[in-house]
Amino acid sequence: MPRLTRGTSAGRKAIDYHPAQYCGYCLSQRLCREDAMSDLIERKLHHVFDVLDIEGSGALTADSILNAAERYTRFRGVTPGSDRAERLYESIREYWSAMAGLDTDGDGKVSRQEFTTGLVAVASDPGMYEKSIETTADTFFDLADMDGNGRLDRDEYVDLYSVGVGIGRSDTIRAFARMDVHAKGYLTREEWRGAVAEFYQSTDPDAPGNWLWGPY
Questions:
Q1: Count of Cβ atoms closer than 10 Å to residue 56 Cβ
Q2: Strand 13-16 vs strand 59-60: parallel, antiparallel, or unpaired?
Q3: Per-residue pLDDT at 54
Q4: Residue 14 gets which letter from DSSP?
Q5: By the 8 A CB rule, do 176 and 162 touch?
Q6: Is the domain covering 32-199 a CATH 1.20.140.150 domain?
């Protein structure tokens, strides 16, 4: 029977290990991998749903997403009807279009179950991931990059997620600091894409990208 050790280096104790009996003692990342993947990724996705479901209705709709865009454009001082405003709204419409694909029962709303189940499936399929999540990530990047310098500065990220999405400002500042691993004060598009991939796909609890949508 396999043997594992527990405790500190000064006082390790060998124990007999049997998967069905001692799951709580698993020390190898390979053990209980499926449960770990499910728990961490689903916890992150449930957090995103809660953030987006501002009214607490238990479902996401086009109106709720467009209302967030309206708040953001007002905060940014974008003139309604301007080219910049239209580009912002088009970005949000593209985001909702991707989101609407999760509406499996066709009721015009995305429930929590549809959201989490759908995104887990999308994130695990390379083709679907690139078409949906990575494309949406680029949409968010372009939406936040107000000065068009090809970088997501800290304030741009904070404004997008605190004003547009509704995450607490102090939480977004902490989140950006976690993702900005080199403390440059900005994220490149590739770094942004990497953070997005970690959020939706990583089972490492210490991955910086886990903080994409703030503390979870």
A1: 6
A2: unpaired
A3: 85
A4: E
A5: no
A6: no
**145 within 8 A of 204, measured Cβ to Cβ:** no
Kindly give, in sequence order, each residue whose CB lies less than 8 Å from that of residue 54, ignoring residues fewer than 6 positions away.
64, 67, 68, 166
Neighbours of 194 (CB within 10 A): 19
Q: How far is CA 32 from the centre of its chain?
A: 23
Domain positions in the chain are 1-31, 32-199
Which of 193, 121, 188, 114 minimizes the C-alpha distance to 151? Answer: 188
Task: Tokens for 29, please give them.
Answer: 């990342």
Query: Residue 80 and residue 70: Cα distance in Å, rounded?
Result: 9
Reading the block at residue 72, the tokens are 């953001």
Is the model's pLDDT at 97 over the cut of 80? yes
| pLDDT surpassing 60 at residue 59 | yes
CB distance 136 to 94 below 8 Å: yes
